[in-house]
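ERR on first pass: missing label on line 2. Operator R.T. fixed the label and resubmitted. Corrected input:
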Amino acid sequence: MAVFGASSLELLAIEPPGRGASLLYGFGNSIGIAVGAFGLGFLIGVGGAYGKLYGGPVLRDLLEVYTTVVRAVPELVWILLLYFAGTDLVNQLLVAFGHEPIDINGLAAGVCILGIVQGAYSTEVLRGAILAIPQGQIEAARAYGMSPGLMLRRITLPAMLPFAIPGLANLWLIATKDTALLAIVGVDELTQMTRNAGAATKAYFTFFLTAGAMYLALTIVSEIIIKRIERWARRGMPAVGAH
Amino acid sequence: MTEAALASTTTRQRVLGWLQPHRIVLMGIALIIAFASVFFLRWDWLPNYASLAVQGLWRTIWLLVVTVALGLALAIPFGFVQAAGPAVLAWPAKAFCTVIRGTPLLLQLWLLYYGLGSLFPQFPWIRESVLWPILRQAWPYGVLALTLSYAGYEGEVMRGAFAGVPRGQLEAARAFGMSRWKIFRRIWLPQALHRALPTLAGETVLQLKATPLVATITMMDIYGVASRVRQDTYITYEPLLLLALVYLTITGILVFVFRKLEARIPARLG
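pass 2 clean. output:
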């Protein structure tokens, strides 16, 4: 009944009898999904925040419904709904255009689902950050006759960054942990690979503790990098939160 | 004009101001979609699963209330020792919060359920103890994982809340000759809880959204019931849509209750 015996190291070995390689593969997939979902969420967030601030009344109300409903219902429900609905929709479209139905790639599905969920939170974070930009900067950009696209690229995005980074950092950490939820639809990410390895060998503690350490390392490394980015983005601005 | 009449006119004005023409159209479209889904989607499974759904709903709410209460009871000491305790206590508490916040809840839940669940039967004295019938079920692991998770996140909030209570308040309490326990009970804790209250609402909604994870360890909460319907009847969307509506309603009630609670407590801090 060796729970933490010498066999633990053999189980975690990279070579085939050990499960190290499949855990690393899952970890790589988890990071990839998190990066994709965070990126997609950021793009949706920029569009959503712009729509909420400068859009017409109908667009604004629809975006309000999107952010409220997505944030009020568990991610687990969205994952199932969007996974089934998304694969159904894609296959029906393919059949309608005379193609064979396909198996949807789990990673792509995961990125889309978590991206849509992240987008709702991103919208709120970025809306707050854009509102925090001193109004004169936006007015000055308009006075120069900048088009909305140019203003977004040159003024709004760079100027809101320092206000958005704490919220975005939080969202990134949530994205890394939310990838674990994709295990319930069988995406090959770290938690799923860990459960498979545990079920095959019965060494649950070894594998779950190892996976936990991997997630923790990702969080801690992320926090160190975030601190640097925050210092860079806030350069030349007065210090906040000094006690 | 009486005060009550004045209040009612402002309420009516507020409602009328909210009801702009495009909103009426949008609500009309929403109603049409709602009616269409009632008539064109399949709901014939609903009566067969109604009692199971009520049980599941009860289990979800029970799980939420119990784990929030236990988690908060743990978070207060965890936050306090990080804000004002000796390093011997502050470090383990900080490590606990970091580990809980740095790893996915699903992983923690499976570590407890599969890990402890496969470890316990190996010890005969556990298998023969009076607790064994309880430890064989799934819910102790679900409650434990959700409680620790809430304690980890809320412990961090309480640390900030305890640290944020102005020193003058504590010095004044000491000048009144209060004992350390009385200062904590009458001054420090109530003010820290005031400060934590706005985040408490958000954390509780997050906790509600974490409860369906227990369905993965065979607990039949409302999410588990929806999964069961899908497996039994091969109807995919209807149970999930209804489930989303149920969570939306519970979240709405939670937000409303916390807003009322916050309004009852005077906002002035300091």
